[in-house]
Amino acid sequence: MAPAAAEQSKSKLRILLMPFFATSHILPITDLAFHLAAARPDAVEAIVATTHANASIVHSALARREPSIHAAKVKVTTYAFPAVDGLPPGVENMSTVAAADGWRLEAAAATESTMRPAQERLIREISPDAIVSDLHFFGWISAIAAELGIPCPLFSVVGIFPTLATWRLALLGRVKDAPPGGSVTIPEFPGPEISLPVTEMSDFLRNPPVFDPELGAQYMMLLKSSGFIANTFVDLEREYCESFDGCGYAKRTYCVGPLALPMPPPAAASAPDRSACLEWLDTMATHSVVYLCFGSLTNFSEAQLDELALGLEGSGVPFLWVVRVKKTWEPPAGWKDRVGSRGMLVTGWAPQTDILQHPSVGAFVTQCGWNSVLETIAAGVPVLTWPMLFEQFITERFMTRAISIGERLWPEGAGVRSTKYEEHELVPAKAIAQSVAKFMERGGAAEAARKRVKELSPKAHAAIAEGGTSRRDVHQLIDDFMAARASAVGTTSS
After folding, report:
1. Between vectors from CA 460 to CA 454 and to CA 462, what angle results, nearest 5°?
2. Contact call for residues 198 and 182 (beta carbons, < 8 A)
3. Residue 122, pLDDT above cutoff 50
4. Which residues are paired to 378 by β-bridges?
5. In the predicted model, is pLDDT for residue 492 greater than 60?
6. SS3 406
7. When comparing pLDDT for 263 and 19, which is higher?
8. Which one of 115, 232, 256, 274 counts the least CB within 10 Å of its CB?
């Protein structure tokens, strides 16, 4: 073996992880970096690469792992975000961009001439042994990895169920043949039959882009050569995992979640910096509170916020409602006085994992983002679903039909729901009040759903623990990276 090759074989395995510019993507990829470093601390060096304005999100995610030495061993590096017409300097995240300008950030991230130069400079400077790239963006990273002769599996921030459903619909082309206002049944799909109105499908499915056949072939070749990483666990989606593997889309599927586990312990009641919302929850009865949070990307109209406020008031149920900051919105006149201590409104950030673990929380009204799905399962809390974007409507079917841990907040047939803001009808206060009150009534649907989700919760924790399926897949991913490096070193030295 040549001296240089021998030196490389003894060095740590350097894994570069590159998420898209959304908090919901950055957090799970950072969590994956932590688990890679924790699995083999003496053999693995994990590096998360993002833009300057997004680096604080990575550091915050690692800080919650403290005092873990493995979190400290995850490195963070940055590259420049390009100047984009219509975006102010420093706006580099889908959570901070104005709703009307989100497409500008997405377009920049998807444009090779715009984004590749800075990313490629960083990749070649770091010279990693493997790259984990976001599934939905940065297709050119796989080409760079191929030039360097290193593996580049794709990471999905959603589960196997929504991924398999989306790919089935896309590859079999059923959506474009549906009549206006019609519905489509997901073809060749395991489990209960799943149908969705066309309005509840992402624009990617409604208006498929024209793919370059050569790029499409390269993409599929990448999956079959380097693999697919999903933030899920086998016991949650077993029949869908088996179906996905049987399709032959990827050489290997690594189910490595829930990556947010193990959760840090909730803040102690005596902690001086404990959140005010947790203090308020301490005053409420067990399983009595409905917790509402719609993620970092959902943008409700002021009219819908008014209806939601009045619906919560009319339900008579205690609630903790986290609202993404809207500078111009205020609750309806007199609402705070009428609700009184029965409800708490939080603007901005709230400690979601601590809230979900609190015994007073009886249900979670969620937009069906996959990170929230895993958090509520890990905490054993049933759900009322209110999807708004992307694959969230498909994920809703997973929760309400496949694993039955909750119900739709707005009953089927009550009105039009859509992934497009302009098509989504206003959900009226009366419907919200009735749905929340009925779900939470004694002996109601929440109790049955809680029993089912409580059966899944220990399985989620077991998956990521020593000997669990997800922990084994993390080790297998490292082993495969090491084997690829050894093969490359052997080729170089021969």
Report:
1. 110
2. yes
3. yes
4. none
5. no
6. strand
7. 19
8. 274
- What is the number of alpha carbons within 13 Å of residue 260 lying toward its C-beta? 22
| pLDDT value of position 224 | 61
Report which DSSP code applies to 331: P
Which pairing describes strands 183-185 and 195-197: parallel, antiparallel, or unpaired?
antiparallel
CA distances (Å), 128 to each of 79, 104, 149, 249, in order? 16, 30, 10, 25
Q: Which residues contact 354 (CB under 8 A, 6 or more apart)?
A: 266, 267, 275, 278
CA distances from 10 to 5, 44, 46, 124, 480 (A): 9, 11, 16, 20, 16
**Residue 322 φ/ψ, nearest 5 degrees:** -100, 120
Burial of 118 (0-12, 13-18, 19+ CB in 10 A): middle
Kindly state the DSSP code that residue 400 receives in the 8-state scheme: I
At 129, phi and psi to the nearest 5? -85, -20
Residue 7 is predicted with a pLDDT of 47
Q: Are 141 and 149 in contact (CB under 8 A)?
A: no
pLDDT, residue 209, reads: 66
pLDDT tens-digit readout, 393-416: 999 999 999 999 999 999 888 888
Q: At 437, is the pLDDT very low, low, confident or very high (cuts 50, 70, 90)? A: very high
| Residue predicted with more confidence, 479 or 493 | 479
Indicate the pairing of strand 319-323 with strand 183-185.
unpaired
Instruction: Return d(Cα 46, Cα 77) in angstroms, integer.
Output: 11
Distance from C-alpha of 21 to C-alpha of 53, rounded to nearest angstrom: 10
Contact indicator for 255, 185 with CB cutoff of 8 Å: no
> What is the DSSP secondary structure assignment for residue 269, as one 8-state letter?
T
User: For residues 203 and 419, is the Cβ–Cβ distance under 8 A?
Assistant: yes
CA dist., res. 492 & res. 327, Å (int): 59
Residue type, 341: S
CA dist., res. 198 & res. 204, Å (int): 12
Closest CA to 439 of 417, 406, 478, 392: 406
Cα–Cα separations (whole angstroms), residue 428 to 312, 314, 356, 425:
11, 11, 26, 9
pLDDT at 445 over 50: yes
Q: Three-state DSSP class for 351?
A: coil
Say what the pTM is: 0.91
